[in-house]
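Hey, quick one: can you model this chain's 3D structure?
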Amino acid sequence: MTETLPPLKKWHERKTFASPTLKMINSRLQYYRKILSQPEPTNQKARIKYNKIKSKYERDMKVRRLLNNAVKNLYM
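Sure thing. Here's the predicted structure for all 76 residues.
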């Protein structure tokens, strides 16, 4: 007697290690876009904070792309 695999879940039912992480990253990216959409500040202290947020935004975009690719490859 051969054992069969359980049926695959539908797309909206799939949960992976990346699901909660992607939700958190997307929330942070929304905040970063809100800050970065404003004009760049002129004083030094505010410019440092602006640049930190800009680097965090770029890093989170890379992480989000990698996680999305991992999830897509997992369910191909």
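One thing worth noting: The chain has a mean pLDDT of 85.
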